[in-house]
Amino acid sequence: MRVAVHVAVIALLYLMFSFSLFLGLQVSTTYGNIGMVVSIGAVIAYVVLVYRRRSRRVTMEEQGP
Description:
single chain
């Protein structure tokens, strides 16, 4: 279940990035730049969220029951 959620989130991040490239190349460079900032921010937020959850889980496992 967790792997499926991670795959879905990564696919959505890829679609967001692709759409921002489309906006930048076909519509307007301003919209493309805004889309890039938003998509890069979303990727950074996802990486930080996953890293914090992993480090917290490792810390809880080290403490024991």
